[in-house]
Design brief:
The protein is mainly α. Helix content is 74%, strand content 0%. It contains eight helices and no strands. α1 packs antiparallel against α8, α5 runs antiparallel to α6 and α5 runs antiparallel to α8. The longest helix has 25 residues. About 2% of the residues have low confidence.
Length: 229
């Protein structure tokens, strides 16, 4: 007598990762909205803290031209938004050429593009003036909030880190990718304050908005991406 094999029913897709990402996005969005409201309202304690930190770092930047020159190289070349977009373009090519993952490539390009559109729209809407110094060490265009450098680095590094994990990289590679990503996102924000072209809350806003966008994008991929099952 032969036992008849019975296939088990297909397992339903696990939506818990998408739900966790959506929950994180919600928390980050609330924090971003709160900071935006305080900046728009010119809440005095925040403005005073911004001014105190900016004055202190600007004095140090003027007194330490060597370190300031290094910060300019890092912010203008290594961590510049266009450098981050180039890294995104290379990742898109890799996804299409090596992984045949066109949907994920389009998702990555669309997420980074959305980040650029969002930060430029907020700059125009908020219209916050940048710091003005009698002895500037650097200059920048457009309005101050949020920091485009900080937001772009957070979005690009966050999404690329998630892709490294998503495609099953080993612990050693994940650790190797983690540190440059964290140093880039945090470091570029610090250089913007050091160079006197942003208030600290501009950078914090860029980090929060960038992290929010990463969480939303990850939730979208995990919920509707081709590999969600």
């Amino acid at each position: 007598m032969h036992n008849t094999s019975v296939d088990s029913p297909p397992r339903p897709p696990d939506h818990r990762p998408a739900a966790r990402a959506a929950g994180a996005a919600g928390v980050l969005a609330v924090c971003s909205a709160l900071l935006l409201a305080l900046v728009v309202a010119e809440w005095h304690p925040l403005m005073a803290l911004d001014s105190d930190v900016a004055r202190t770092t600007h004095r140090r930047a003027v007194d330490e031209p060597g370190l300031t020159h290094v910060c300019r190289i890092l912010t203008d070349w290594v961590w510049d938004p266009w450098t981050m977009r180039l890294a995104t373009a290379l990742a898109v090519v890799w996804l299409v050429w090596r992984r045949s993952a066109r949907w994920t490539a389009y998702w990555l390009a669309a997420s980074v593009t959305l980040g650029s559109v969002l930060q430029q729209g907020l700059k125009a809407a908020v219209g916050r003036p940048r710091p003005v110094w009698p002895d500037p060490v650097d200059s920048a265009r457009y309005a101050a909030f949020p920091s485009g450098h900080a937001m772009t680095a957070t979005v690009v590094c966050g999404l690329l880190l998630w892709l490294v994990h998503h495609y099953g990289a080993g612990p050693a590679l994940r650790r190797t990718a983690l540190w440059p990503a964290v140093v880039s996102a945090v470091g570029v924000g610090l250089t913007r304050v050091w160079l006197g072209v942003h208030w600290p809350s501009d950078v914090l806003g860029g980090w929060l908005l960038g992290a929010t966008l990463v969480a939303v994008a990850v939730a979208v991929h995990q919920r509707w991406g081709p590999e969600r099952a």
